[in-house]
């Protein structure tokens, strides 16, 4: 029994040693690209572009609440949020803070973003909204791609 246990341990250790080291700069660049795609999706008011990196279930924390949303619910929300909207600013006020797990399976990004947008209501009246958003987005690597899985949001 001891021999079998020893063999299993040796196999596990050799597998761990045989894994390729993670290129953290590449992973960081990929996460920044996701962030840039999110920015572009807002300026284009493109729901599908925004959903490219969304999970099937998304957890959000804001205003003292924890909410779980399906991909379909996220789509419906952003269809309304982007309808007749125009973005003038969606800009980082400071560089994003990014941390990636050693095996690059999980990551998080803290951002502080200034947003200025207008949106026409159904009667055609245009309303401007400006705010500063600060939050943390968490990501999971799924099939070689960074996917948003959870977010905590604050607004100034």
Description:
- There is one protein chain.
- This protein is of the alpha+beta class.
- The chain has a single domain (23-155), classed as Nuclear Transport Factor 2, Chain: A (Roll), CATH 3.10.450.50.
- Helices cover 35% and strands 45% of the residues.
- The protein has helices at residues 2-18, 24-44, 47-51, 71-82, and strands spanning 54-62, 65-70, 85-92, 97-100, 106-120, 126-142, 145-155.
- β6 (126-142) and β7 (145-155) form a beta hairpin.
- The model has no long low-confidence stretch (mean pLDDT 91).
Give a brief description.
This protein has 4 helices and 7 strands; from the N terminus they run αααββαβββββ. It is α+β, with helices and mostly antiparallel strands. It has a single domain (23-155), classed as Nuclear Transport Factor 2, Chain: A (Roll).
Write the layout of secondary structure elements.
Elements: H1 2-18, H2 24-44, H3 47-51, E1 54-62, E2 65-70, H4 71-82, E3 85-92, E4 97-100, E5 106-120, E6 126-142, E7 145-155
Instruction: Describe the main β-sheet briefly.
Output: 7 strands, mixed
Q: How many β strands by DSSP?
A: 7
H/E topology pattern: HHHEEHEEEEE
Rg is 20 Å
How much of the sequence lies in strands comes to 35-45%
What CATH architecture would you give? Answer: Roll
Content-based structural category: alpha+beta
Q: Outline, from the CA principal axes?
A: globular
Q: Which whole number gives the mean pLDDT?
A: 91
First-last Cα distance: 62 Å
Task: Please identify the top-level CATH class.
Answer: Alpha Beta
Q: Count helical runs.
A: 4
- Secondary structure: helix percent: 25-40%
Poorly predicted runs of 5 or more residues? none
């Amino acid at each position: 029994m001891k021999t079998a246990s020893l063999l299993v341990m040796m196999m596990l250790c050799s597998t761990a040693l045989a894994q390729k080291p993670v290129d953290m700069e590449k992973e960081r660049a990929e996460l920044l690209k996701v962030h840039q795609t999110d920015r572009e999706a807002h300026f284009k008011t493109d729901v599908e572009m925004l959903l490219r990196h969304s999970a099937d279930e998304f957890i959000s924390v804001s205003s003292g609440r924890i909410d779980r949303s399906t991909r379909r619910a996220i789509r419906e929300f952003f269809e309304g949020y982007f309808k007749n909207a125009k973005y003038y600013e969606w800009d980082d006020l400071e560089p994003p803070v990014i941390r990636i797990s050693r095996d690059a399976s999980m990551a998080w990004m803290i951002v502080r973003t200034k947003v200025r947008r207008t949106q026409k209501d159904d009667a055609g009246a245009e309303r401007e909204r400006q705010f500063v958003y600060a939050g943390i987005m968490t990501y999971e690597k799924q099939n070689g791609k960074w996917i948003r899985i959870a977010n905590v949001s604050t607004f100034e």
